[in-house]
């Protein structure tokens, strides 16, 4: 009997949440800084899904792509080399958000936190081709786990299904001690 009551309560809560839920799909763009010690800044692009079942609690799933390239020169055994290096980072993050209610205002600030997966790839290429033991091209890739903290605000105009926002996020990457990702993005979300 108790199991049946618990099951009925869970199903009722699930159906109520689904019928009152707001779902939004959106895009994001901004600046990101990634590194461990010497950070590099670059453009950040991505998308997100925003789910709200309760007025003050929301969930967000986001994916972003960050990239930075630079050219440096080095002199090795009397020869000048150009080294083209690039770092790419793909992040997949889940954020639980606590929304701060401002009665009568279209602005909704929030704070949040959650886990993330970070896929990093670094490449370096010498030009002209260096003599052995140096390699003309090096490449490393790694998957990392971390947590992040977010703060932001959304502006929802009453007559439009689109909302606009800004979000700042700081990620601590555990699998690579000292690594972090800091980003500030603008958001546009289409709400259903």
Give a verbal description of the structure.
This protein has 192 residues and is mainly beta. The chain has one domain (2-191): Porin (Beta Barrel), CATH 2.40.160. It is built from one helix and eight strands. Strands 1-2-3-4-5-6-7-8 form an eight-stranded antiparallel β-barrel. The longest helix is centred in the first third of the chain and has 19 residues, at 2-20. The protein is elongated and about 80 Å long.
Short descriptors:
8-stranded antiparallel β-barrel, mainly beta, 192 residues, 1 helix
What's a quick, concise take on this entry?
The protein is mainly β. The protein has one helix at residues 2-20, and strands at 22-35, 40-54, 57-76, 79-99, 107-127, 137-156, 162-173, 179-191.
List the helices and strands and how they pair.
Layout: H1 2-20, E1 22-35, E2 40-54, E3 57-76, E4 79-99, E5 107-127, E6 137-156, E7 162-173, E8 179-191
Antiparallel strand pairs: 1-2, 1-8, 2-3, 3-4, 4-5, 5-6, 6-7, 7-8
Radius of gyration: 22 Å
* Helix-strand topology string: HEEEEEEEE
Structural class: mainly beta
End-to-end CA span: 38 Å
Secondary structure tally: strands:
8
Structural domain tally: 1
CATH class: Mainly Beta
Q: Determine the mean pLDDT.
A: 85
């Amino acid at each position: 009997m108790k199991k049946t009551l618990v099951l009925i309560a869970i199903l009722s809560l699930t159906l109520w949440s689904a019928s009152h839920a707001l779902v939004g799909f959106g895009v994001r763009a901004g600046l990101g800084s990634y590194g461990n010690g010497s950070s590099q800044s670059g453009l950040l692009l991505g998308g997100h899904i925003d789910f709200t079942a309760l007025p003050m609690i929301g969930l967000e799933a986001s994916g972003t792509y960050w990239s930075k390239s630079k050219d440096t020169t080095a002199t090795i055994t009397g020869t000048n080399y150009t080294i083209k290096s690039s770092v790419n980072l793909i992040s997949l993050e889940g954020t639980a958000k606590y929304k701060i209610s401002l009665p009568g205002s279209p602005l909704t600030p929030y704070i949040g936190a959650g886990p993330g997966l970070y896929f990093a790839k670094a490449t370096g290429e010498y030009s002209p081709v260096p003599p052995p033991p140096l390699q003309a091209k090096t490449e490393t890739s790694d998957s990392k786990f971390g947590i992040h903290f977010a703060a932001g605000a959304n502006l929802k105009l009453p007559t439009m299904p689109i909302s606009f926002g800004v979000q700042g996020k700081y990620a601590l990457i555990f699998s690579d001690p000292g690594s972090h990702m800091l980003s500030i993005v603008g958001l546009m979300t289409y709400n259903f």
